[in-house]
Amino acid sequence: MNMNIINTGNEQGQSISVVGDTYRILISGEQTGGNYAVIDMLVVPPGGGPGPHAHKDMQEMFYVVEGEIDFKMQSGSYTAKKGAFVNIPLGGAVHSFKNKTDTVAHLLCTVVPAGLESFFKEIGKPIAAGEFLTPQPPTSEELNKLQQLAEKYGQKLYPPNFLD
Fold this sequence. Notes:
Blueprint: E1 15-18, E2 21-27, H1 29-32, E3 37-44, E4 53-54, E5 59-66, E6 68-73, E7 76-81, E8 85-88, E9 95-98, E10 105-112, H2 116-123, E11 125-127, H3 140-152, E12 156-157
Antiparallel strand pairs: 1-2, 1-11, 2-3, 3-10, 4-12, 5-8, 5-10, 6-7, 6-9
């Protein structure tokens, strides 16, 4: 494992567009020996965010930097506003989040162990720092690829209305 201090400047880290959201990998599992990864979810546009999913072997934590996000879990729902922290524990709790406002939200996501950032790299499109791609509805081919890659990375996807 790398024993050096790692510094990621504001223009560094891989930027990717993931289903209409803009993410930047601040530190990857490759840099932490697989222990954790930190993803700056710079742009979660109105209507953005993943549908119901679970990853039983990964803990996922979110800090809301700007805006607000509605989190849904099997245990209920929660509106996380600027400054809020949300923890999705190990064990496979089904969860989702959506930006239901008309302004962009900004989240900082930490995953333990790493791996989610590799999933994002594989399903996303590399973009330049500061670039934003307009969300496009996924094709059936893209949805099929998303399902296959989710399973590859230990995730299970659920129908959009699963938590309703």
